[in-house]
């Protein structure tokens, strides 16, 4: 019984791992440059940041879903969007496991970088100064990293 359970566990871990690996989108820099604008490439592939208050989704409040501009993965919904006053679109939650987290030590401070878990595109950073009534999190996202699709 023990060996069957171990085999089943290993098979399940392998199977689930292979599903995740199949979903990953990997492209060369040249391929990304062909499908992204230069500004999107700078943000998504080189971890750049658009100037505060310059993005089209900063004060944008239509109902719908925000997708990764590089790979079209759903990342945030309009229900989780709020006005943080920071100059970037802000959300208090993300969709499923589509957003990943990395420690970012650039500029002498430690922040939590947020990325698209499917294409590894840089989205922005997460801070713990969001709405206390919900998650307390603020996903501070570059508009250039997003595409919006209106709900029907």
TrEMBL record:
GO biological process: protein repair; response to oxidative stress
Domain MsrB positions: 29-151
Source organism, top-level taxon: Bacteria
Protein EC: 1.8.4.12
MF term (GO), any: peptide-methionine (R)-S-oxide reductase activity
SUPFAM superfamilies on file: Mss4-like (SSF51316)
Entry GO CC: cytoplasm
InterPro entries: Met_Sox_Rdtase_MsrB, Met_Sox_Rdtase_MsrB_dom, Mss4-like_sf
Cofactor section: Zn(2+)
Key word ATP-binding present: no
Keywords on record: Metal-binding, Oxidoreductase, Zinc
Reaction it catalyzes: L-methionyl-[protein] + [thioredoxin]-disulfide + H2O = L-methionyl-(R)-S-oxide-[protein] + [thioredoxin]-dithiol
Family listed: Belongs to the MsrB Met sulfoxide reductase family.
Alphabetical list of NCBIfam families matching this protein: peptide-methionine (R)-S-oxide reductase MsrB (TIGR00357)
The protein, known as: peptide-methionine (R)-S-oxide reductase
Organism this protein belongs to: Wenyingzhuangia marina
């Amino acid at each position: 019984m023990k060996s069957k359970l171990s085999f089943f566990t290993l098979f399940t871990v392998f199977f689930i791992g292979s599903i995740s690996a199949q979903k990953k989108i990997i492209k060369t820099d040249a391929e990304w440059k062909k499908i992204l604008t230069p500004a999107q490439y700078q943000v998504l592939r080189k971890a750049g940041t658009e100037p505060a208050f310059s993005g089209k989704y900063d004060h944008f409040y239509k109902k719908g879903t925000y997708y990764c501009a590089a790979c079209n993965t759903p990342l945030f919904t309009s229900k989780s969007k709020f006005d943080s006053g920071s100059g970037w679109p802000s959300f208090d939650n993300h969709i499923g496991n589509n957003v990943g987290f990395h420690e970012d030590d650039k500029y002498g401070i430690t922040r939590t970088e947020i990325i698209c878990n499917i294409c590894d595109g840089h989205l922005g950073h997460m801070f713990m100064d969001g709405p206390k009534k919900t998650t307390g999190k603020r996903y501070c996202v570059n508009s250039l990293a997003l595409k919006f699709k209106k709900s029907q």
